């Protein structure tokens, strides 16, 4: 069963535990700036929206990469950056219409969510179940994907 | 069915793979005119900067990738195409028949009509062979002149800086990357580069390149209204043009590039074009244009191959998008960054910190953008432009503060 991250913004309190956990898991430091999941704050509405890569089936980042550096993890379905192959050209960062691949100037490589190899730290850290890791067929991906379909240069390329 | 592809760059390789997937029994022949395995020109600057070796530029890393897919490769130049006769000619004189042909021969570098550009020591930076030559001469401390500070020139500049050469950049235009950046951003990039030790001279015209007779360097560049410049190596990055010379008598229509319809089909029904060489629909304007960028190469390669195998896949058009790293200052531009008639724009500028963002709107939709010094979530600009998302009340927020782009995206697309 392929699982995926499910985000329920209505349950998010804005505690940023997910950002801390992500940064620690992936970069070894507690620094929200280095997190691959970000919580956006809508102050006037009192709303918090955690946001990260949805691991698109037909991934824009992967299709745009000129050096085959974005590869699919067969176990998790995650699109992962192979740091040995990434040259740091950043084309994936402008090609991803969700803005979830970012360039890390310190390493000269791009970074994105890799589902922590199948045990995402953000979901474990979330105290309110605003981020859960569950059956992919079950999630709010449809909403994201329908939006992706409107971004139509790639969608029409799918048979 | 025999499919032949001219060009082994990203468009040709993606097309070959797509053809194989769509038509497992078809014969696929991929022709490239360079001896190396299919590679990415985009990776050459990172090779010159010694971040990667030549293998790091390869488009596919498994050595038997194409053999495993049953894709036959030919490393030879195509000299002519007979479109109605369904044949092409290789440099060796050999003819190859095709049922469907994909023209994906990319671009070639062009030089301005300046005397002396055809002598040793003056080189384009386009192929792996060029890169090897440049690596031999661009040693620490050697005098290098880079002609052209467009997008490609600026990327090569970064690599030359990392090679610790004594670098002078000459640009005829009044700013850096004039086709990707507005005056504000282009000048900020120029000042950033000067601050980082690169001698950048805009509005500078080279009149002639001559052998140097002082014994200090190999060459001397005579410039208009400026002192001559000495150089051991001159790298010419003054633009590229679709490689269509071998197609003159092919029967396909050529304007700036090979003209294609909304299915990436040329004016001859069994011939398609993709990548830098094709003049295809531009997304959002209805015009036809050549967009020589990596995402467009991959997208058109795929769509053309789909249609070559009988699918009716409409190409929605190519959106101009670029990202540039100038010695650590990252800039992007998207779509109609110059703005549109009756449109509106908003901008935020912090010159001291080299940060800038400019958004272009048509009614309450984003149609173009420029950013400087932004590396987080830039792709959302593409998403907002190509999804034609109506920003509603977020338009007003962005008019006041264009940096709130991520909030606007979430607010406009993920509202509860």
What can you tell me about this protein's structure?
The complex is a heterodimer of chains A (159) and B (416). With 159 residues, chain A is α+β, with helices and mostly antiparallel strands. Chain A contains 6 helices and 8 strands; from the N terminus they run βαββαββαββαβαα. Chain A has 2 domains: 1-52 and 117-145, Alpha-Beta Plaits; 54-112, 2-Layer Sandwich (Alpha-Beta Plaits), CATH 3.30.70. In chain A, strands 1-8 form a two-stranded antiparallel sheet. Chain A has a two-stranded antiparallel ribbon with strand order 2-3. Chain A has a two-stranded antiparallel ribbon with strand order 4-5. Chain A is globular, with a radius of gyration of 15 Å. Chain B is an alpha/beta fold and 416 residues long. Chain B has a 5-stranded parallel sheet. In chain B, helix 1 packs parallel to helix 7 and helix 9 runs antiparallel to helix 10. Chain B starts with a strand and ends with a helix. The model of chain B has no long low-confidence stretch (mean pLDDT 96). The interface between A and B is large, with 44 and 60 residues.
Distance, first to last CA of chain A: 25 Å
How many domain units of chain A? 2
Provide the low-confidence segments of chain A as ranges: 153-159
| Multimeric state | heterodimer
Distance between the termini of chain B: 51 Å
CATH fold-level label of the largest domain in chain A: Alpha-Beta Plaits
Supply the helix-strand structural class of chain A.
alpha+beta
What percent of the residues of chain A sit in helical stretches (DSSP H or I)? Answer: 25-40%
Alpha carbon gyration radius of chain A: 15 Å
Query: How many domains would you count in the coordinates of chain B?
Result: 3
CATH topology name of the largest domain in chain B: FAD/NAD(P)-binding domain
DSSP summary: helix tally of chain A: 6
* Total number of beta strands of chain B: 26
Mean pLDDT of chain A: 87
Outline the low-pLDDT stretches of chain B: none
Name of the CATH homologous superfamily of the largest domain in chain B:
FAD/NAD(P)-binding domain
How would a crystallographer describe the biggest sheet of chain B? 5 strands, parallel
Strand percentage of chain A, roughly?
A: 15-25%
CATH class of the largest domain in chain A: Alpha Beta
What is the largest interface, and how many residues per chain?
A-B, 44 and 60 residues
